[in-house]
Amino acid sequence: MMSDTTSEDHYEFSDQFDDDFDLQDPGNFDSDNNYFNIVNMEHVKASERRTVAEIADLFSIMVPMSTILLMAYFWNREKLSEEYIEGRALAKVGLTDADLEVQRKSGQKVQCSPRTCPICCDTYTRGFQLACKHTACIKCYERYLGEKLSSGDLLSTRCLGQHDCRLVATLDDFRELSKDLESGYLEKTAASYLQSHSSSFKACPGPGCTSIIELTSSLAMLDLDQYMVECSCGKRFCLGCKNDWHLPIKCDLASRWMNINGERMKNNLWLDKNTKPCPKCEARIERTEGCNHMKCRTCHFEYCWMCMQEWSAHNGMFFKCVHFQPSAEAKHSGRATSARLKHYSIRFDSNIIDSRRDVNVRDLTFSSQQVLNKAVPTLSYTRRILAWTYVLLFYVTGSNQKTILETSVSDIESHAETLAELLAGDEQAAAPCLELSGYLETRVENLITHALETNWKLDRNSLTYTPS
Ligand SMILES: [Zn+2]
Ligand SMILES: [Zn+2]
Ligand SMILES: [Zn+2]
Ligand SMILES: [Zn+2]
Ligand SMILES: [Zn+2]
Ligand SMILES: [Zn+2]
Question: What is the average pLDDT score of the chain?
Answer without folding.
Answer: 83
